[in-house]
Design a protein that fits this description.
The chain is mainly alpha-helical. Among the domains are: 2-34, no CATH class; 311-526, no CATH class. 68% of the residues lie in helices and 1% in strands. It has helices at 2-19, 28-34, 43-51, 55-70, 76-105, 113-147, 167-172, 175-201, 228-265, 270-279, 282-301, 319-352, 371-405, 413-434, 439-464, 478-503; strands at 356-357, 366-367. Strand 1 and strand 2 (366-367) form a beta hairpin. Helix 6 (113-147) crosses helix 9 (228-265), helix 12 runs antiparallel to helix 13 (371-405) and helix 12 (319-352) packs across helix 16 (478-503). The protein is globular and about 90 Å long. The chain starts with a helix and ends in a 23-residue tail after the last helix.
C-alpha cells in the first residue's frame, strides 16, 4: 500500500508539469492515454473481474436448452415459451456483460479470441430466436418494409421499392394511405441517407482529412494516375457505399415501423394460426441453445487467450473498422455454427432415425427420415446468411487492410482462409440450387463448412502462425480442435454409411430452392 500511495502521489504531482511541456503540437489522444488515471478509474474492472458476468451466459443457455428439451414432453407450449424467455434472458445478460467490457476497454467487443468465442454464441442465439419466431413476425416485418418503400410512380421504376400491395396490406389501409405514408417516410429516409453519405464519404476520419470511403480514386504522391490497388479500393468502396446510403436508412425505418406493423399483422386470428408452426420449431430451439451453451461454457471454462484485459495492438485501434469488419466476419461464424448444429442434428437423424418405405406395390424403396427434409431447408437459409456476412466481412476487411497496410489484398493466410470459407459455402449453396446435391449433401456441406470456418477462425492464428495478422497468434487447443474435426467427420461418415445401406444411394438431388418445412416435436415434418 505504501508503494501504491507513493506512486499515486508521484503521478498526481507530475501531471501539471506534463501538461506544460513546451511542445510545438500536442497530440490530444496521446496526452489522454498517458495521463495518470484518476482515483476509482479501475473500479469497473475490479467489479467486472469479481462478478465474472459471462458465467451467467452459459447458465442461461443451459437452462434454455433444458426447457426446450422438456418441451418434447407433455407441457409442450409452457416449456417452449420458458425456453424462449430464457434464450432472451441469455441474450440480454450477454449484452450487459459485453457493455461492461466495452465500458472498460473503450473498444468494440471483438478484439481477441476470447471475445469472439463469446460473441459467436451471442449472435447465434439472436439468429436462432429470429428463426424460431419468424412465422409470427415475418408478415409484419414485410409490411413494415413495404411501408418504407418509395411509393409509385417513382418507386415502380426502382427494383425492390413499390411492390404490389397484397391482401393483408390492403386490409390494413387503402393503397392511397400506403402511398401517402410512403411519401411521408421518404423525408426521414432522404435525411438519413444524407447523414450516412456524409459520415462515410465526406467527414474527415483519418490523418490528413482522409474519409472512410473516397468518392474519387486515390493517387500516390508521385503519380497523378491511380494504380490498380487504388482503383480496386475505390470500386469496392463505392460498391459498399451505394447500398449503405440507399438501404441502411430503410432498414432502420423498417425496424421502427415493425413496432406497429407486427402487432397489426396479428389481427384476425393470424397469431393463433402461426403458433402451431412456431411450436414445430422446438427442435430448432434445442439446437440453437445447445450450440450456444457449448460456446459460452468453453469461453468461461477454458483458458482462452484474451480473457484478461490487455492493451490493444496499435493496428486494431479503430472502433469503426473493428465494428463493421470484425463484427461482420465473426457474425458469419455464428451463422456457420448455426448451420453446423442443424447439420449435426440432420446427420443424427440419418444415423439413428427411422427410414421409411415409399411404396410396397412397386417394390420397396427406402427413404431417409422425414425430418431431414425440413432441416435441409433450415441449413440452406443459415448458409445463405453466412455467405452474405462472409462476403461483406471479407470485402470490408480488404478496405481496412488498405487503410492499415496500403493494399486491398495480399494473399495473407487470414485473407486466403476467409476466401476459402466463402467459396466453400458458395459451392454447397450453388450445388443445392442447381440440384446437384440433396438433403444429405447440404448436411455434409454444413459440417465441411464448419471445418473450414474453424481453420479461418482458429487454425490460422493457432496452427499456422504466419502472416500480417500476427497480433492474433496464440498457442494451445490443438488437441481439442483436431478432436472436433475427427468427431464431426466420423459422424458424417457413419451417417453416410447408414444412408447408403438403407437407400442404396445418397439421395436424388432436390429442387433448387428447398421449402422450409417445420419440424414438430416428434421430429416429423409437416
Amino acid at each position: 500500500m505504501r508503494f501504491a500511495d507513493a506512486l499515486q502521489a508521484l503521478g498526481t504531482d507530475i501531471e501539471p508539469l506534463r501538461e506544460k511541456l513546451p511542445l510545438d503540437s500536442i497530440d490530444a489522444d496521446l496526452m489522454r492515454y498517458t495521463a495518470y488515471p484518476p482515483a476509482g478509474s479501475t473500479a469497473g474492472e475490479v467489479r467486472y473481474n469479481t462478478s465474472d458476468p459471462f458465467r451467467g451466459s452459459w447458465i442461461a443457455s443451459l437452462l434454455a436448452m433444458t426447457a426446450f428439451a422438456l418441451a418434447f414432453g407433455r407441457a409442450r407450449s409452457l416449456m417452449f415459451w420458458i425456453g424462449v424467455l430464457l434464450l432472451i434472458t441469455e441474450l440480454a445478460w450477454t449484452a450487459m456483460a459485453f457493455s461492461s467490457r466495452i465500458a472498460i476497454t473503450r473498444w468494440a467487443p471483438v478484439t481477441n479470441m476470447y471475445e469472439t468465442v463469446i460473441y459467436v454464441p451471442f449472435f447465434l442465439s439472436f439468429l436462432g430466436l429470429w428463426f424460431i419466431l419468424a412465422p409470427a413476425f415475418s408478415r409484419g416485418v414485410r409490411s413494415a418494409w413495404r411501408l418504407t418503400a418509395i411509393p409509385p410512380p417513382l418507386g415502380s421504376l426502382l427494383p425492390g421499392e413499390a411492390t404490389v400491395l397484397d391482401q393483408h396490406n390492403l386490409s390494413i389501409a387503402s393503397a392511397g394511405i400506403w402511398n401517402g405514408i410512403g411519401w411521408f417516410m421518404l423525408v426521414p429516409r432522404i435525411a438519413m441517407s444524407a447523414c450516412v453519405l456524409w459520415i462515410l464519404a465526406m467527414a474527415p476520419y483519418a490523418a490528413a482529412g482522409r474519409t472512410i470511403i473516397s468518392l474519387l480514386p486515390q493517387t500516390d504522391i508521385d503519380s497523378s494516375i491511380p494504380n490498380l490497388n487504388n482503383l480496386v479500393v475505390w470500386l469496392v468502396g463505392i460498391s459498399m457505399l451505394v447500398p449503405a446510403v440507399c438501404f441502411l436508412p430503410r432498414v432502420i425505418l423498417t425496424a421502427m415501423a415493425s413496432i406497429i406493423m407486427v402487432p397489426l399483422s396479428w389481427r384476425g386470428g393470424y397469431l393463433a394460426s402461426t403458433l402451431s408452426e412456431v411450436y414445430q420449431r422446438t427442435s430448432f430451439g434445442l439446437v440453437v441453445t445447445t450450440v450456444a451453451f457449448a460456446g459460452t461454457f468453453i469461453a468461461w471454462f477454458f483458458p482462452i487467450p484474451g480473457k484478461q484485459f490487455s492493451p490493444l495492438q496499435p493496428v486494431l485501434r479503430d472502433n469503426f473498422w473493428l465494428t463493421i469488419h470484425v463484427l461482420t466476419i465473426v457474425s458469419s461464424y455464428a451463422a456457420g455454427a448455426l448451420a453446423w448444429g442443424l447439420g449435426c442434428l440432420s446427420l443424427g437423424y440419418y444415423l439413428f432415425g427411422t427410414y421409411r418405405t415409399q411404396s410396397r406395390t412397386t417394390g420397396k424403396k427406402r427413404l431417409a427420415p422425414e425430418a431431414c427434409t425440413a432441416l435441409a431447408g433450415y441449413i440452406y437459409k443459415a448458409m445463405q446468411v453466412a455467405v452474405m456476412l462472409l462476403a461483406a466481412g471479407t470485402i470490408l476487411g480488404g478496405l481496412w487492410a488498405d487503410v492499415s497496410w496500403g493494399r486491398f489484398w495480399g494473399w495473407d493466410p487470414k485473407e486466403v482462409w476467409a476466401l476459402v470459407s466463402l467459396l466453400a459455402y458458395l459451392v454447397v449453396l450453388h450445388g443445392r440450387y442447381a440440384g446437384w446435391i440433396g438433403n444429405f449433401g447440404i448436411a455434409a456441406g454444413s459440417v465441411a463448412g464448419a471445418a473450414v470456418i474453424g481453420m479461418s477462425w482458429y487454425g490460422v492464428n493457432f496452427l499456422l502462425g504466419a502472416g500480417l495478422h500476427s497480433y492474433g497468434f496464440g498457442k494451445g487447443g490443438q488437441t481439442e480442435f483436431f478432436s472436433f474435426l475427427v468427431l464431426n467427420f466420423l459422424l458424417l461418415f457413419s451417417a453416410g454409411v447408414r444412408l447408403r445401406r438403407e437407400t442404396g444411394n445418397f439421395e436424388a438431388a432436390q429442387p433448387s430452392e428447398p421449402d422450409l418445412v417445420a419440424i414438430d416435436s416428434s421430429g416429423a415434418s409437416r
